Amino acid sequence: MENPYKRKKEPEVSKQLILAAAAEIGAKDWHLVTFQAIADKTGLSKGGIIHHFRNKEELLKELMDQSLAELTEWIMEEKKSSVNEVGSLAYLRFIIDKSNDLFYRRTMKIVTQVVLFNVDYRKTWDDWFRLHIGNGDNSEQGIKHLIVMLVADGLWYSDNLGLYDISDQKKQQILETLIKL
């Protein structure tokens, strides 16, 4: 007979719970993320957390991989929906659309911290951009593409560092202005 008091194992639910807790804690400061802090927040045991992530580095990598996968999917869908959509505009639309998504914001605060201070993650981010967005060539169109990317990055950093307090309406005005380019 099965033990009725035994908690039902749901590995994917537990994994997402761990990631959400790490994002919430780490949004303040990535250094505050510990397995004990996650255990306290989720009610899971440290052993249960270690079952999913052997160390903090694996946890961070999963957060970054999920973020890049979501961004990749968004950009591919945007490109499919509009023949003229370039990666930089899709990226800008993503930044604007996701700016009110709490999990995304928390995760991006962590990614911002590690991209700024860890050369390996900076390279991962840069490689992803070169593959999916490009970096603009020297043509007039390439320069316009680069301008859109830099504006998107500026909004991304502004949101994640809590700078300028740019309203959704102003973000839409920025997007509309850049589309005219």
From TrEMBL:
Molecular functions (GO terms): DNA binding
Swiss-Prot/TrEMBL keywords: DNA-binding
HTH tetR-type domain residues: 11-71
DNA-binding region in chain numbering: 34-53
Residue runs in coiled coils: none
InterPro entries: Homeodomain-like_sf (IPR009057), HTH_TetR (IPR001647), Tet_transcr_reg_TetR-rel_C_sf (IPR036271), TetR_CgmR_C (IPR041479)
PROSITE patterns in the cross-refs: HTH_TETR_2
Annotated protein name in UniProt: TetR/AcrR family transcriptional regulator
Lineage: Bacteria, Pseudomonadati, Bacteroidota, Sphingobacteriia, Sphingobacteriales
